Amino acid sequence: MHLSLSRSVVLANAPVTSHPRIRCLKTPIQVLEVFDVWGIDFVGPFPMSKENRYILVAIDYVSKWVEAQALPTNDARVVLEFLKKLFSRFGTPRARISDRGTHFCNTMLEKALQCYGFTHGLATAYHPQTSGQVENANRGVKRTLEKTVGKSRKDWSDKLDDALAPWALKTVNLDVTEAAKRRYFQIHELEALRDAVYACSLSIKEKSKSLHDRKLKGLKEFKKGDRVLFYNSHLKLFGGKLKSKWTGPYIVEEVFPYGTIELQNKVDGNTWKVNGHRLKHYIGGPLDENKEEE
User: Fold this and answer.
1) For the sheet containing 119-122, what is the strand order?
2) What are the residues facing 273 on neighbouring strands?
3) Which of 2, 137, 156, 258 has an alpha carbon 20 to 30 Å from 67's alpha carbon atom?
4) Would you identify the CATH topology of the domain 5-23+220-281?
5) Which residue has the higher pLDDT, 5 or 174?
6) CATH 3.30.420.10, the chain: domain bounds
7) Which CATH superfamily hosts domain 37-172?
8) Average pLDDT, the chain
């Protein structure tokens, strides 16, 4: 069996490296007020512990304060109850950021939360940098649990509060005299402190974006109608098979801000959104996946 010319074109388009190079500009998430933006994500499944198998983690993007709860399932119902408790304690945020899992993106949850009037930001598939803060919190919680659970690892739900202790200690000033002075200062200069923190955060993110963008080589730009290949990291390859994880070509249906691209499969008409760093331009003729030469 020999590969047809059209299939050879795909292999020619595929890079030598096994992972796509990042060639998209960085887009920092700038937040103004404490508890304005929360990142939320599930961790698990874990071994059963008091009928719980998952941990729902939320982190505030300004204060880095972490909230977590052990839950038996990872469906929309438990997410809604968790968010309602979160809002009653910290107020309604301006936005929340999550992945595109069905437990976060569903009709029931969207309708229930319409009355709160906040924006739901979605991370594109295979781009964990968008929800990087909550991913870091997840790793911190798991590392602490690994050091505190018993040998059976079935008591992790009892140890969850201990795993959250490091974030609580970060905000504690154990010097009573110094704490009293700082508290008096904070009450009278609160707005000035917020402005200073915002300016500092903006400066750091601008420098980080500048350093990131400066290292980019061959910036990729896409427009509606372009033919592109998509890097499918979930594609299972069999040993000995000469096949690339770059699939396609697909048609660019729409280009959104901040690197999100909507693709369309001309075969079945399906559309989906991906991050631009997982795409590259396709150069070649029409592709027939089923065409092979004897």
Assistant:
1) 66-71, 54-60, 37-43, 95-98, 119-122
2) 262
3) 258
4) SH3 type barrels. (2.30.30)
5) 174
6) 37-172
7) Ribonuclease H-like superfamily/Ribonuclease H (3.30.420.10)
8) 74
Q: How confident is the model at residue 145 (pLDDT cuts 50, 70, 90)?
A: confident
Tokens standing for residue 58: 């939320």
- Rounded CA-CA distance 12/169 in Å is 54
For the chain, residues classed under CATH 2.30.30.140 are 5-23+220-281
Tokens 């590392």 label which residue? 143
User: pLDDT tens for residues 6-55?
Assistant: 443 443 444 444 555 555 555 555 556 778 888 888 887 888 888 899 99
b/e sequence 147-166, b meaning 16+ C-beta within 10 Å: eebeeeeeebbebbeebbee
From CA 55, how far away is CA 142, in angstroms rounded? 10
Whole-number percent of the chain with pLDDT over 70: 66
- The set of residues, in sequence order, having a beta carbon less than 8 Å from that of 280 and lying 6+ positions away, is 13, 15, 20, 220, 228, 229, 231, 246
